[in-house]
Design brief:
By secondary structure, this protein is α/β, with parallel strands linked by helices. Helix content is about 30%, strand content about 15%. It binds S-adenosylmethionine.
Length: about 325
């Protein structure tokens, strides 16, 4: 079947189509990174008017069908990520485990709307991470800044005697992500409520693909995956039943570019510039145990004159 995209960019192709038809038309073993954020079957209303209130077995069968197609089009060594509620990712993870190699269940700490009576307050989404074949062809996770107090800029954890051993590019990424903001920035008010954060999609895209790699997302939504791929120089392909939000977003992609620049400045550094500035304001100096020369080179290159000396001499 020949498919005609509704939007093309220098790197990508968007199809206004049902994911099953779209995926069936793709060539096998062509995709480096496949990501899916399907509807969660919570009875929500989507502009695409899908049925989001199926019987459990029906929903799971539907998910397994498009997951099998995603597996088919994934290259050996390619990565598959599935974003969903723990309730669904438990059975879907078991299904994927029979066909792919399990890497991680990543817990992304984002509070849902409100606590539910007689239940624990659901506070994480599940991000499943699988590989086609025994090991990933591409894996380069970012390093993250030391988590600091939003008021005084002080470290939230005590690194004790290990400060001098810390990598100046930041701490290793764990499988619990607590730094992903919900999407509610004023600039993005118009975007669909279920849009994922650009920080999340950038993290996945940069971890499991290289410039020129092919990224796939069959549930485009507001286009966060495609924007992250486009701005990071990855090729991308995807589908969505109602593409209007994505087309509009690509018309104003400069706002996302600025947002991504800000995300880039705050990763692979031991301390963010704003945390260092907060420390100075609060008179809360940085311990001399940190490898100062490394930190200066890696983290403070953009700080205003005088900040470095003020930061350390007040110790
Ligand atoms: C949770 S949203 C995805 C949000 C997206 N990750 C983002 O960041 O904006 C799920 C999307 O899947 C789309 N969708 C649902 N069923 C579909 C189908 N059968 N084929 C293609 N898209 C579908 C819905 O219209 C909705 O926009």
């Amino acid at each position: 079947m020949t498919m005609i995209p509704i939007l093309t960019t220098p790197l990508g192709e968007l199809h206004q189509a049902d994911c099953d038809l779209f995926l069936a038309a793709l060539e096998p073993d062509t995709v480096d990174l496949a990501f899916a954020d399907p509807p969660f079957n919570l009875g929500k209303t989507y502009s695409s008017r899908i049925n989001d209130a199926r019987a459990d077995e029906d929903y799971l069968d539907w998910c397994k069908a498009w997951l099998d197609q995603m597996i088919r089009v994934l290259k050996p060594g390619g990565s598959l990520f599935l974003w969903n509620l723990p309730k669904w990712n438990l059975p879907l993870g078991a299904h994927l485990g029979g066909k792919l190699t399990f890497r991680h269940w990543i817990s992304v700490d984002i509070k849902y709307s409100l606590p539910i009576q007689n239940r624990l307050y659901p506070s994480h989404y599940s991000l499943l991470y699988f590989i086609k074949g025994p090991k990933p062809a591409i894996f380069h996770p970012d390093r993250l800044p030391v988590p600091c107090c939003r008021h005084c800029g002080g470290e939230l954890r005590d690194y004790g005697g290990y400060k001098d051993k810390m990598n100046p590019k930041g701490v290793s990424m764990s499988d619990v992500w607590t730094d992903i903001p919900p999407v509610r920035h004023a600039k993005y008010k118009k975007r669909a409520a279920n849009a994922l954060s650009l920080k999340l999609m950038d993290r996945i895209v940069t971890m499991a693909s290289d410039p020129g790699s092919l990224v796939l997302d069959p549930f485009g939504g507001s286009g966060t995956t495609f924007v992250a791929a486009e701005l990071r120089g990855r090729r991308w392909i995807g589908s969505e039943l109602d593409c209007s939000a994505i087309v509009e977003r690509f018309d104003t992609i400069e706002a996302d570019r600025e947002h991504l620049d800000q995300i880039t400045r705050n990763k692979n550094v031991l301390f963010t510039k704003s945390d260092l500035e907060r420390r100075i304001k609060a008179g809360n100096p940085l311990s001399k145990d940190y490898r100062l020369s490394d930190i200066e080179g890696a983290c403070l290159c953009e700080t205003p004159d005088g900040l470095q000396s003020e930061l350390f001499t007040s110790v």
